[in-house]
Amino acid sequence: MLRELSKQTLSEIVYHVSRRTGEIAAKAKATTGEKGPRLTSPRQAIVIPATPPAVVRGDAGVDSPHATGPGMDVTAHEHTDVAKGPYGLPALIEIFRFATSLIAPDTHGRGSEDANSLFGLKLVTIMIDANAEYFRANHALLNLVLDDLSRALCGVVTSCSPHVLAASTSLITIIYSEFREELKLHLEVFVRMVLLPLCSSRNGVEEETQRVALEALVDLCKNDNFATDLYMYYDCELTKPNVFEEVTVIDGLTTKM
């Protein structure tokens, strides 16, 4: 009970942080009148300032950064403005990285894996739904979606329960809807290496898993651009596989079952 309440509380916090990150960043820029450093990589999100030496008054009344003794304020640097790190975009990046790390399978047992994966998928879905426009506009967040999140999704769907697979494919559909212009390579991986093998009964896939994968493919096809993107990006390219043809073949075989 307490765990579920904690997860719900964290979900609400993540939603409001994600929804207002752009507003907070704009207000901070207007207040300071400075643009600040541009974050082009998630690794540049948090910059920990160097700790300055403590300044104390020595016996001769001279300030010395190396003096020791009674009355020395060893935490003086913690009260300066430089120690107050930003809490807008860097916080959102760290939360998103944490949520993405929960999606990947762990070694604590099947039940724990599913619970962690579902919670991570829920947090990521909340963050993207709350402020997808800000994700598209910021290179650091967009790189996390295209790199860390895509890799985690491809890793979890190959060895998860139908419940986790349903949540993962739902998130894949949302990602395609929001970031389709940046997902040319990712779309090929999602469709050919994730969904289509799970849709085929020839690979020994369980019926429930096959049903979830087919439903995900149907949800993608409901997007007005999905079929056009498949045909234009892959089947019309001489060096690319015929993904649109493969999808239609799988659909035709499935209807005969």
Quick summary:
The protein is an all-alpha fold and 257 residues long.
Which spans of ≥5 residues are poorly predicted at pLDDT below 50? 36-56, 60-85
Order of helices and strands: HEEHHHHHHHH
Number of strands: 2
- Portion in strands: under 5%
The radius of gyration over CA amounts to 24 Å
Given the helix and strand composition, which structural class is it?
mainly alpha
Let me know the largest β-sheet.
Answer: 2 strands, antiparallel
Number of domains: 2
The level of helicity is 55-70%
Q: What is the terminal-to-terminal distance?
A: 43 Å
Number of helices: 9
The average pLDDT is 74
Strand order of the largest sheet: 1-2
What form results from the Cα inertia axes? globular
Tell me what the structure shows.
It is a single chain. The protein has helices at 2-32, 89-103, 110-137, 139-156, 162-179, 184-199, 207-221, 226-235, 243-255, and strands at 56-57, 63-64. By secondary structure, it is mainly α. It folds into 2 domains: 1-46 and 74-182, no CATH class; 183-257, no CATH class. It has a two-stranded antiparallel ribbon with strand order 1-2. It is globular and about 60 Å long.
SSE blueprint:
Elements: H1 2-32, E1 56-57, E2 63-64, H2 89-103, H3 110-137, H4 139-156, H5 162-179, H6 184-199, H7 207-221, H8 226-235, H9 243-255
Antiparallel strand pairs: 1-2
Helix pairs in contact: 1-3, 2-3, 2-4, 3-4, 3-5, 5-7, 6-7, 6-9
List keywords for this structure.
about 260 residues, mainly alpha, 2 domains, two-stranded antiparallel sheet, 9 helices, 2 strands, about 65% helix
